[in-house]
Amino acid sequence: MRPVAAVLWSALALSLLVAMSCGGDADDEPAADGEALRIGLLLNFSGGSARSEERRQGFELAIKHINDAGGVMGRPVEVVAADSTLDPEVAVEAARRLVEEEGIHALVGPSSSANSLRVVAEVTGPAGIPTISPSATSPELTGVADRDFFFRTALSDSAQGPVLARVTREMGFDDVGMIYRDDSWGRGLADAFAQAWEGGLQSVAVEADRTSYLDELRAITDAGTQALVVITFNTEGVMIIREALESGLYDQFALGDAMVGDEVLEGLGSEFEGGMFGTLPGRHPGGESTAAWERAYAAEHGGQPQAAYVREAYDAAVAIALAAQAAGSLDGVAIRDKLRSVGGGPGEKAIAGADGIAAALSALSEGRQVDYEGAAVSMDWDENGDLLSGHIGIWRLTEDGEVEEVEVVGFGE
């Protein structure tokens, strides 16, 4: 491991040991006596990112509910967390350490699409480690060479892009500029938007860690565009919006899901005077499982998360635990082969929350099947590990500076 990755590991890796329950219906070799289900958590913790911390909280809430219910196969779960950063090289090294040195049986993460593509193709796929990302949305991941070990609890951007295009059109714009991050996520969402967009479009790809984006802004503004679509991460996105406002080039913005949250609004400041709307992962309207999760999260943390993909992190951890319980094994292939059945049935309906997870684990320990309706989505996976259905939220910034969800659009229903 490179020195920088080793330092990050030493600073940020952690282990949580908790108890779990026994059972299962598979013929696979059972876990060795006393061996624990070991789940890796690989997120971008660098820079004190609030969104990664909230996703970690969602993941840990799942572990708490699983362990409070008695756990998986009567053995404690070990959680080992590592910092992926936004650098795919660091992410690969951290994932390799989790697999080869820490001995994880499954992985939740990575956060980003660029990291997921490398980690799955180079580490977890070849090693046979089931991997579920709560937030990697690039369409490129559908065809990644993963040996069927990669799944997502977030919809692909092939679903989000058309919704962002639709709401941009409904806001009254027919000629827009677009700046997008030049990586697998940015390109994927930008392409999905462009394919659904029926008006004029001037777009440019940008690298991260720039000190200014004025040249790109001026280039697409010269074409007479009315609003700016921003598909970047929050740090560069805030810089782009500030420069667009200060130079008088744009005052209307449509944002991808990576830029919703308090960090962006805080970065723009209270003096922000522009129109802003965008898309984000949508909660199931009226969903029993979502409501149960929200009550549990509020009881634990005093309110609802501000970041996207927190529920999805919870669902990823739950899916792994339920699949291991159903398999009665810690073997990667055995866990993988149960993921689709615990997520898509057939079986008894199971929901999020302490009571729901306890009931699901109890049913599995008695040899019955379950169909887990996630806190975020109903986890019906296709042959690529992509979700067959879900929801996309549409939000806008109100006059008093609050993010308001104005609509939830169903996908695949």
Mean pLDDT: 89
Strand runs, count: 15
Q: What is the helix fraction of residues, given as a range?
A: 40-55%
Please tell me how large the radius of gyration is.
21 Å
What is the general shape?
Answer: globular
Q: Helix-strand pattern, N to C?
A: HEEHEHEHEEHEHEHEHEHEHHHEHEEE
Describe the structure.
Helices cover 41% and strands 20% of the residues. The protein has helices spanning 3-12, 50-68, 88-100, 113-127, 157-170, 184-196, 214-221, 234-246, 262-268, 288-301, 310-327, 332-344, 354-365, and strands at 14-18, 38-43, 77-83, 106-108, 131-133, 150-152, 175-181, 200-206, 227-231, 252-255, 275-281, 348-351, 370-373, 390-397, 403-411. α2 packs parallel to α11 (310-327), α5 crosses α6 (184-196) and α11 (310-327) crosses α12. The relative contact order is 0.14. The chain contains 13 helices and 15 strands. The chain has a seven-stranded mixed beta sheet with strand order 8-7-9-10-11-14-15, with helices on both faces. Strands 1-3-2-4-5-6 form a six-stranded mixed beta sheet. A two-stranded parallel sheet has the order 12-13. The radius of gyration is 21 Å and the shape is globular. The protein starts with a helix and ends with a strand. With 413 residues, the protein is α/β, with parallel strands linked by helices.
